[in-house]
Design goal:
The complex is a heterodimer of chains A (250) and B (279). Chain A has 250 residues and is mostly helical. Chain A is built from 10 helices and no strands. The chains are: A mainly alpha (250), B alpha/beta (279). Bound molecules: adenosine-5'-diphosphate and magnesium ion.
C-alpha cells in the first residue's frame, strides 16, 4: 500500500505542476480540461468508436502478419537453402518503415480499412518473422534427434517438437509485432488524415483535431488513450504468453 | 592388445558390426578426427560397455550407431543390413538427456508411445500403465506433473532413462546414463538395469545394450565385454571379456575377480587419464 502511494506520488506532483503552469494560458490544455474533453468524447461515443476502429484494423493486420510470418519463419529457420535465398530480400525490406509504403498503398488500396490493415500487417510481419527464424534455429539439436530415434516421422516432428520448441520465441515476436502494429496504425491514420472521413480511427481523430477544429485537449486525450491501449495490449499479451508457455519460466 | 577381429572371429551372428569406422569433423583440409579405424562386432543380447577418457569419441560412436551421424569411412550393419539412419528398434539415451521442456515428466516419458511406433497396438490404458510402471521403477513417483526445469540434474537423468525404457527398444544405446546420480541411486539403478536387460533370463531373450560410462567400476559390473578407447583420435585400445558370473549383485562388487578386472582396465588407461588431467 505504501509502495503504491510512493509510485503515484511523482505522477500526481507532475500533474499538479502542469495544471498550475498551464493555467495562465486559455488555449493550453491542462489536466482538468483534458479530463473534461475525455468525458465529453466518451459520452458522445467518438473516442470508443475511434479506438474500436483502430483496434479492429490492428487485429486484422496482426493476424494477417502472423499467418504469413510464422510458417515462413519456420521454413526459413529449418531449411538453410530457403533462408540463404530469402534472407537478402527480407533484409532489404526490413529497414523500410511501414509508413514509407503509404503512398504506394494508398494508390493501390485507397485510404480505408484495407490500406490500414496492409500497413499494420507489413509492420508486424518482420518482428514475427525474425523471431520465428531465430527460435527455430536455436532449438536444441538433440530434441529433434531424440524424436527421430523414437521413430517419429518428419511431419510429426515438426508439429510436436519443432513448433513447441520455437513457440516461446514466436510468441515474443508476436508481442513485439503487436506493439509495432499499434504504433504503425496510429501513424498511418494520422498520415491519411481527414481523407477517410467518418471511417477514421483514433489517428484520424487526432488529425481532425489538429487540422480542422484545433482542439488541443482532444489531441491530448487521444495521445493518452493510445498510450493506455498500448500498455494494455502488451500486458495482456505478456499474460497470455506466460500461460501459453509455462515451461519457459524466466 | 586384443584385436577386435580376432576376438570376434568365432562370432558369425553379430547384431551390429562396425568395420573400419572412422569419423572426422570440420573442413576436409583440416579435419578433427574423432574416431579412427574402429572395428567391432556387437553380439546379440550382449551388454557392451565403452570406457575412455573424455573427448575420446564415445558419444560420436554412439551417434553413429543411432544413425544420427554418418561415418566418414567404413561400414556399419545391423542384422547384416547397412545402418542408414535412426530406427525405433534402437533407443537412445542422450548424454544431455534431450528432454522436451514443454512436456511434463509424464509427457516426456510417454512421448515415444504417443508419437512413435513403440505405442502402436497399445491401448491408451496400456500406455498409461507402462508409463506409470517406469516412473515407479526410476523413483519419480510424485513428480509426474513437473516440468524438466523444475527437476534436479539427477531427476532429469532418471526421466531420460524412463523414457528410453518406456519404449522398450530391442537395442539400447546409452550415453553416460547414470553419471548425474548419487552413488546409492546409481547402484540401485545398475541393479535395475541388469534386471530389465534380462540377466536372469537366457541370453537369447536379452536386449542388446551399448553403454557408455566414464566409471570403470560401472563398466565392469554391468558388462559382458568392456571396450576401452584411447583418445585423439578415438581408437580401440582393448576389449576385455568380463567373465564374472551372472546374476551379479553386491557380492560381485566385493569379489576379487571384480577388483582385478577394474585394476587391469585402470592400468591400461591411467597414463592417458593422467595426461588428460594434467594438461
Ligand atoms: N559436431 C562436432 N563437430 C566438431 N567436432 C566434434 C563434434 N562432435 C564431436 N567432436 C569432437 O570429436 C571428439 C570426440 O567427441 P565426443 O564423441 O563427444 O567424445 P566423448 O563423448 O568421448 O567425450 C572431440 O574432440 C570433440 O571435440
Ligand atoms: Mg560424450
Amino acid at each position: 500500500m505504501n509502495r503504491l502511494a510512493l509510485k503515484l506520488l511523482l505522477p500526481i506532483l507532475l500533474l499538479l505542476a502542469w495544471e498550475l503552469l498551464a493555467s495562465g494560458s486559455a488555449r493550453a490544455p491542462r489536466p482538468s480540461t483534458v479530463v473534461q474533453a475525455a468525458a465529453a468524447m466518451t459520452a458522445s461515443g467518438d473516442l470508443p468508436t475511434g479506438l474500436a476502429t483502430s483496434l479492429l484494423r490492428v487485429f486484422l493486420g496482426f493476424a494477417t502478419a502472423s499467418v504469413l510470418a510464422v510458417p515462413l519463419g519456420i521454413v526459413m529457420g529449418s531449411v538453410a537453402v530457403v533462408e540463404r535465398n530469402l534472407d537478402p530480400l527480407v533484409e532489404s525490406f526490413r529497414p523500410i518503415a511501414a509508413i514509407a509504403l503509404l503512398p504506394l498503398i494508398i494508390l493501390w488500396l485507397g485510404t480505408g480499412t484495407q490500406a490500414a490493415v496492409a500497413i499494420v500487417a507489413y509492420a508486424a510481419f518482420f518482428p514475427i518473422l525474425i523471431n520465428t527464424i531465430a527460435g527455430v534455429k536455436r532449438i536444441e539439436p538433440n530434441l529433434m534427434r531424440a524424436a527421430y530415434t523414437m521413430g517419429v516421422g518428419a511431419l510429426t516432428r515438426m508439429r510436436v517438437v519443432l513448433l513447441p520448441a520455437a513457440l516461446p520465441a514466436i510468441l515474443i515476436g508476436m508481442r513485439i509485432g503487436l506493439g509495432v502494429a499499434w504504433t504503425a496504425i496510429i501513424a498511418a491514420e494520422l498520415a491519411v488524415g481527414a481523407k477517410a472521413g467518418g471511417q477514421g480511427g483514433i489517428g484520424q481523430m487526432m488529425f481532425v483535431f489538429y487540422a480542422y477544429s484545433v482542439e488541443l485537449n482532444g489531441i491530448v486525450v487521444c495521445m493518452v488513450a493510445v498510450g493506455i491501449v498500448a500498455l494494455l495490449l502488451d500486458r495482456s499479451l505478456r499474460f497470455a504468453l506466460a500461460r501459453a508457455v509455462p515451461w519457459s519460466a524466466p | 592388445m586384443t584385436d577386435a577381429r580376432m576376438t570376434d572371429a568365432t562370432m558369425t551372428d553379430a547384431k551390429i558390426r562396425l568395420s573400419g569406422i572412422g569419423k572426422s569433423f570440420g573442413a576436409p583440409a583440416a579435419p578433427v578426427v574423432a574416431v579412427q579405424d574402429l572395428s567391432l562386432d556387437i553380439r546379440p543380447g550382449e551388454f557392451l560397455t565403452i570406457v575412455g577418457p573424455s573427448g575420446c569419441g564415445k558419444t560420436t560412436v554412439l551417434n553413429m550407431l543411432a544413425g544420427l551421424e554418418t561415418p566418414t569411412t567404413g561400414t556399419m550393419t545391423l542384422d547384416g543390413r547397412p545402418i542408414r539412419g535412426p530406427g525405433a528398434e534402437r533407443g537412445v539415451m542422450f548424454q544431455d538427456y534431450a528432454l522436451f521442456p514443454w512436456k511434463t515428466v509424464r509427457g516426456n516419458i510417454g512421448f515415444g508411445l504417443v508419437h512413435g511406433p513403440a505405442g502402436a497396438g497399445l491401448s491408451a490404458a496400456e500406455r498409461e500403465e507402462r508409463v506409470r510402471r517406469v516412473i515407479e521403477l526410476v523413483g519419480l513417483t510424485g513428480s509426474e506433473e513437473k516440468y524438466p526445469h523444475q527437476l534436479s540434474g539427477g531427476m532429469r537423468q532418471r526421466v531420460a532413462l524412463a523414457r528410453l525404457m518406456a519404449n522398450e527398444p530391442q537395442i539400447l544405446l546409452m550415453d553416460e546414463p547414470l553419471a548425474a546420480l548419487d552413488a546409492q541411486t546409481r547402484i540401485i539403478l545398475q541393479d535395475e538395469l541388469l534386471r530389465i536387460w534380462g540377466q536372469d533370463k537366457p541370453a537369447a531373450q536379452r536386449r542388446t545394450v551399448v553403454y557408455i560410462t566414464h566409471s570403470i567400476d560401472e563398466a565392469v559390473f554391468l558388462a559382458d565385454r568392456v571396450v576401452v578407447l584411447s583418445s585423439h583420435p578415438g581408437r580401440l585400445k582393448r576389449i576385455v571379456e568380463i567373465d564374472l558370473p551372472r546374476p551379479r549383485d553386491d557380492a560381485t562388487r566385493l569379489s576379487k575377480g571384480f577388483a582385478d578386472l577394474c585394476q587391469s582396465i585402470w592400468q591400461s588407461i591411467r597414463e592417458e587419464a593422467y595426461r588428460a588431467t594434467m594438461t
